C-alpha cells in the first residue's frame, strides 16, 4: 500500500481501539512489525499516565455526531520496552473502504525532551533568581515593557516590582537625580546594541545611600536589538571601604610627607653644621628618601585598586621604549639593552607602564655593586605578548618571587621593593596577564609578563 511508504505511522482503529491496519513506519518508529500489533488493543501500548486521556479523546471523537478531529501527545511502548513520545491526529471520518478510523502519528520524542529540558532549566533559573541578592532584569528593546525582574529589585532599588511592571518608567524614579542622565545615556546605548558597565546611586527611601554596579547586554536577532538583559549588584560596602581607604591614605601620606620633610631638612642642616656627622646624616637622608618613595608607590597602588578604569589598547613597543628611556634618564650609569621589539598590541590598564618601570628599576638597583646589563625584550606570542626583563644578579628572594606570582600574602611586605612588586602583580593581573619568575642557581633572573592579545 502507498501508506507503507509514509514517514508518519498510519494505523486504523475500530471503535474499541483495536488495530485493524498498521503501516510499515510502525517498525521504524516502534520496532514492531505491522503483523505483531494488528489485532492488539492500541490503548494497552499507551503509557499508564496518559492512557485515560488518550482513551477519552478517542471516544469523544468517534461519538460526535458532527465532524471532529483531535490531536493528542502521549508515550507509546516500543518493542524493546522503552517509550517514545507520539503526536497523533485522528478524525471521526470513515467509509466502507476503510476498516476503521485513521490515526496518523509522528515521533516527537526529541521535541518533547527539549521542551522538558527547557522547562527544567527555566525552573532552576527561577529558583536561583528568587533567592539571588542581585537584581536580574530584562526589558524589551525600547524599555517600554518589563519582561523579567526578580524580587531583589525591591530591596536594592526600593521600588515595587508590581509598579515597575505596570510602568517601567518608575525604574528611573529610584535613581539619584545626578545619575539619571548617565543612566539614560546607557539605556540608549543598549537599545542601539552596545553593552554597558556602570555604577550609580539608588533607593530614595534610604537617601540614595546604595551604590549599585550594573552590567547590561543587548540581545539581538537578525542584527536587530529585541531585548535588553542584565544584572544589578549592590556594591555599597565596597564603595564605603574604598572611600575609607582613600581618606586614610590621604591623611597618612600627608602626615608622613610633612614629617619626613622635617627629618630630611634637619639632616641637611646637621650635615652642614657638623661635618663629622655627614656619614650618619647620609643614612638618614637615604632612608627618608626610601620612605617617600614607598609613600608614592602606596599612592599608586591605592589608585590602582580603588579607581574603576577600563582597559585600553596599548602598543607595547611604544610602552617598552618609553619605560627603558625613563629608567635610563633616572639611572644614567646603568646599562639597559633592548633585545627584541616585536610589534604587538594588548588590552590592558595604563598602570602597565609603572609595572615595567618597576621591574627595570628593581633590576638596576640590585646590581650588587658590580657592572651589569639589564636586558628588556618584547615578544609576540600566539596568545598575545611577553615582556621579559633579564639580569645577571643574585637570585630574587623567594618571598619577592612569590609576590610577583601572586602566591604570597601582604603580611610580610615591609620594604619598598616588596611594595613595588605588589604594584607589578596587581597591574598585570588587572590587565588579564600573569607574571613568571625564573632564577639561576647562583646568578641571573628572568621575569616575564604575559599578556593576552587585543586583536590588532
Sheet with most strands: strand arrangement: 2-1-5-4-3
Largest sheet: 5 strands, antiparallel
Based on CA atoms alone, the radius of gyration comes out at: 37 Å
- The residue-averaged pLDDT reads 86
Derived structural class: alpha+beta
Note the gap between the termini.
65 Å
User: How many domains make up the coordinates?
Assistant: 4
Shape: elongated
CATH class of the largest domain: Alpha Beta
Going by CATH, the architecture of the largest domain would be 2-Layer Sandwich
Number of helices: 14
CATH structural fold name of the largest domain: Heat Shock Protein 90
**Unreliable stretches covering 5 or more consecutive residues:** none
| Helix fraction by DSSP (H/I, runs of at least 4) | 40-55%
Strand residue percentage: 25-35%
CATH homologous group name of the largest domain: Histidine kinase-like ATPase, C-terminal domain
Number of strands: 17
Enzyme class: transferase
Keywords: Kinase, Phosphoprotein, Transferase
GO molecular function: protein histidine kinase activity
Domain Histidine kinase: 251-455
Amino acid at each position: 500500500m502507498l501508506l507503507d511508504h509514509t514517514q508518519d505511522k498510519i494505523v486504523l482503529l475500530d471503535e474499541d481501539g483495536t488495530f485493524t491496519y498498521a503501516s510499515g513506519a510502525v517498525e521504524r518508529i516502534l520496532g514492531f512489525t505491522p503483523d505483531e500489533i494488528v489485532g492488539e488493543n492500541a490503548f494497552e501500548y499507551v503509557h499508564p499516565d496518559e492512557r485515560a486521556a488518550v482513551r477519552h479523546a478517542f471516544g469523544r471523537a468517534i461519538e460526535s455526531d458532527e465532524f471532529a478531529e483531535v490531536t493528542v501527545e502521549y508515550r507509546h511502548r516500543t518493542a524493546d520496552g522503552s517509550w517514545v513520545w507520539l503526536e497523533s491526529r485522528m478524525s471521526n471520518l470513515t467509509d466502507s473502504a476503510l476498516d476503521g478510523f485513521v490515526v496518523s502519528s509522528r515521533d516527537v520524542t526529541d521535541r518533547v525532551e527539549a521542551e522538558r529540558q527547557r522547562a527544567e532549566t527555566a525552573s532552576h533559573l527561577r529558583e536561583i533568581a528568587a533567592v539571588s541578592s542581585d537584581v536580574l532584569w530584562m526589558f524589551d528593546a525600547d524599555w517600554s515593557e518589563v519582561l523579567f525582574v526578580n524580587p531583589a529589585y525591591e530591596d536594592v532599588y526600593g521600588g515595587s516590582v508590581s509598579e515597575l511592571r505596570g510602568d517601567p518608567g518608575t525604574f528611573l524614579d529610584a535613581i539619584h537625580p545626578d545619575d539619571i542622565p548617565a543612566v539614560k545615556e546607557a539605556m540608549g546605548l543598549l537599545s542601539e546594541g552596545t553593552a554597558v558597565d556602570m555604577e550609580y546611586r539608588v533607593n530614595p527611601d534610604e537617601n540614595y545611600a546604595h551604590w549599585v554596579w550594573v552590567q547590561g547586554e543587548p540581545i539581538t536577532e537578525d542584527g536587530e536589538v529585541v531585548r535588553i538583559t542584565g544584572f544589578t549588584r549592590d556594591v555599597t560596602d565596597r564603595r564605603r571601604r574604598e572611600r575609607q581607604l582613600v581618606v586614610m591614605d590621604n591623611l597618612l601620606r600627608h602626615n608622613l610627607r610633612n614629617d619626613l620633610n622635617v627629618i630630611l631638612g634637619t639632616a641637611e642642616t646637621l650635615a652642614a653644621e657638623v661635618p663629622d656627622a655627614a656619614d650618619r646624616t647620609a643614612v638618614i637622608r637615604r632612608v627618608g628618601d626610601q620612605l617617600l618613595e614607598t609613600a608614592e608607590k602606596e599612592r599608586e597602588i591605592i589608585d590602582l585598586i580603588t579607581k574603576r578604569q577600563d582597559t585600553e589598547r596599548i602598543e607595547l613597543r611604544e610602552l617598552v621604549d618609553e619605560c627603558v628611556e625613563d629608567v635610563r634618564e633616572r639611572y644614567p650609569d646603568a646599562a639597559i639593552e633592548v633585545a627584541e621589539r616585536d610589534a604587538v598590541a594588548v588590552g590592558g590598564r595604563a598602570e602597565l607602564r609603572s609595572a615595567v618601570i618597576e621591574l627595570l628599576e628593581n633590576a638596576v638597583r640590585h646590581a650588587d655593586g658590580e657592572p651589569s646589563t639589564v636586558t628588556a625584550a618584547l615578544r609576540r606570542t600566539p596568545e598575545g605578548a611577553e615582556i621579559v626583563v633579564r639580569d645577571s644578579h643574585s637570585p630574587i628572594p623567594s618571598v619577592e618571587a612569590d609576590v610577583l606570582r601572586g602566591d604570597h600574602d601582604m603580611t610580610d611586605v615591609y620594604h619598598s621593593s616588596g611594595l613595588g612588586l605588589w604594584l607589578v602583580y596587581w597591574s598585570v593581573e588587572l590587565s588579564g596577564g600573569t607574571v613568571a619568575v625564573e632564577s639561576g642557581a647562583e646568578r641571573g633572573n628572568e621575569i616575564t609578563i604575559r599578556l593576552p592579545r587585543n586583536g590588532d
